[in-house]
Structure formats: structure tokens, C-alpha cells
Design a protein that fits this description.
By secondary structure, the chain is α+β, with helices and mostly antiparallel strands. The protein has a domain of about 200 residues: 2-enoyl-CoA Hydratase, Chain A, domain 1 (Alpha-Beta Complex), CATH 3.90.226. It contains eleven helices and 21 strands. The strands form four sheets. Strands 2, 5, 6, 7, 8, 9 and 10 form a seven-stranded antiparallel β-sheet that branches. The radius of gyration is 22 Å and the shape is globular.
Amino acid sequence: MVITKSRLVLGATAVTLSTIAVTSLGIHSRGQALFKASPKELVDEVWQIVQRQYVDGTFNQVDWVAVRKEYLNKSYSSQEDAYKAIREMLKRLDDPYTRFMNPEEFKNMQVDTSGELTGIGITISQDEKTKQLVVIAPIEDTPAFKAGILSKDVIVKIDGKSTKGMDTNEAVSLIRGEPGSQVVLTIQRNGQQKVFNIKRARIEIHPVRFSQQQTPVGKVGYIRLNQFSANAAKEMQQAIRNLEKQQVDGYVMDLRGNPGGLLYASVEIARMWLDKGTIVSTIDRQGEQEREVARGRALTNKPLVVLVDKGSASASEILSGALQDNKRAVLVGTQTFGKGLVQSVRPLEDGSGLAVTIAKYHTPSGKDINKHGIDPDIKVELTDAQRQELWLRERDKIGTLADLQYAKALEILGKEIAAKRTPTAERSQTNQL
């Protein structure tokens, strides 16, 4: 099966609850399977995919051939037996991003093109070292967001059940449910546990919000990008063109709390800001690089400041890294999440699905940001109390001077705007002499 760029996702354990993966927007299943593979055939199909595509040719020091022999020598009386075996087999890789989804989980993963989902609206990942379930970010205006869930929160219990040893698929199955029903999450934050009762809802997601703001430094276009979904590039294009018509002097793009999404969406959006230069390099297990570059079609060359924080992950890091390394934008905020891996998500013969880590990515300067993230040019920390105050109780102040990170971004943008204007003014005076 050919892997198209639309199937490449970033940080694929980023999980929008009840939809499995926010990073999987735009991925299409085969619909009705042509035939239902036998349990053993399904086990072997998964093994073969990993054998061909997995990013590490040593399979993380696992004898993958011996694993196949072990699991094909077993007898399977049902598909459920096969599913259990597949999950056991994949655990040998010790890679939380390579995971199996049964048909129900795979179906729930796929978000409608309308951008609507059912759940509580958080994105989670399994920490590679501790194996704990960690919140990457809550999605704005969702039940989890309003309840007070924060980036880096650790989910220790779901409806009273311990998450120790639990993978993301099982967590999703426990947390998702019918709109109007409730789920109880026990969160560990700064060494203390907090309990959240959250009501599930149907959520409509528009990835881009924008406004033109009159500020002390001039007319500023403020663009907030919530996630890199299938329609994110289109909405970003519309936002920039609208703001250009309003003749803004510069831009602030807000990627705070953006958990990522589709690789191609981040590349397309980067091209809207960059006329030239590398955007990202993906490296497979043969060490071959595929380089995405700008195409000379930037929609604006006006000054740009980008806001990032620890909830800015995967595709957010590709975009911010590309803009930073190409000297196109100044990054303000805090260190980003640190997701530097790419997954391919594909359907299997019986309607189930498989996500496989197939590559890692580097920023244009060659930085591998996995587990570290991207360091902002200007660091502006917010305490948990300040973040909760801003993002929960005083949300109308986001993107205003009362937002400390935005205020700093505006200060930096003012200097960038002034620096860009000065040479033009000098040339004009010279021409008049």
C-alpha cells in the first residue's frame, strides 16, 4: 500500500478522546473490508507492515523475525485473540506510538470532514519513560478545557480505575462515551492529585481563529491555530488573506496548546509564511531524507511573532521550528512538548487499524527535537495559577495586553515592525535629495 503524505501524522499517540487521534484527520479507511482475514492472517499482516516500515531497522533491539515465529505458532480461535496477540507483539517494540486499533477504535479515530467529534476534548500521550498517560493539551472550548485540565497533567485514574500499565487505546475506550454522560478523571499535577468530573459532548472544531487588533505598535493580525486538521491550511490561508486586505503591519500567530496533527498541514501552512528555505526533513530507517521546502509563494512577508508553550506539539513544532530556523519569526513563550516522530496510519483487512512509527523529523537546522522540544527565542513563563486564570476564568483576555506572553510578543513585534519600516523611510529620503 502506498503511503501518501495525507496519511503521515505526527505524535500519533496524541489522542482526542472518543476519536482516538486528532492527528488522524483526513485518513480514510477502506470502508467495507473486501474480506475478513483469519485471526492468524491478521497477526501476520501487522507483523509484515512493521517489518517493512518501522523506523528502526533493529526494531529497538528486538529479534522481530523470532517474534513472528512465536506468534504464528500460536492458535487463535477468534479475532479478539488475534487483537490481544497483536498488542502483545507490538509492546515488544517498547514504542507507545506504534499501536493497534480494533475496528471500533479505528472507526472512532476518524473525524468527519466537518471537524466534529464526540468526547471531552483532550489530547493525550503515553510518556516513553514513565509509561504514564500525559495530557498534551486540552482543546479550546471543550468540556476538558472548561473543567481545568492542563498540558502535562498526568491521568492516574479513569472512573476510579488506575491507569498504571494502561495504553492509550484502553484509556480512550474508558473515557469516550455518549454526549451528556460523565467521566471522572483523577489527575496528578505538581505532586498533588485532583479529581475532575467532566461531561462528554459533541464538539465542532474550527482550527483557525483570527482578528485584526489596533495596538500601540500598529495594526496587528492575531491568528490562533488550535490544531493541524485537514482544513487547517485552508482556514489559515483565508485568515492571512483577510488580514492582508485590512493592511495589518505584522502578525502574532498563537500555537499555544496546539497538539499537532497532519504533517502536510504543517508544511502547507509554513509555505504561506516562507518564500524560500527548508521546512522539515523526515528521516526513515535507511537514513534517507525527504526534504519539504518553501516554493516562493508566501502570502505575506510582514513581521511575525509566534507564541508557543509546553502544549505546542508535533506539527506545531515543525511549523515553529521552520519559522525560527529560517529567521522568519521570533518565538515567544516556553519550551515546546517534544514530539519528533512521524506515524503512518492504515486500515487492516478486517476493518481494524495500525499506526506505525516510520520516520523521525528534523528542523531545517538539523535539530532533533524529540523529547526536548523547541526553545523559544524569548522565554516568558506562566505559573499554573496564571495559566488557569487566563485560559479558564479570563479567556476574553487571551491575545490582549493582559495576556503576559502575548504582551511580550507584541513588544517584540513592535521592534520588528519599526526595523522593517526604517530602511524604507531612509531610502525614500535619499531619493528625494
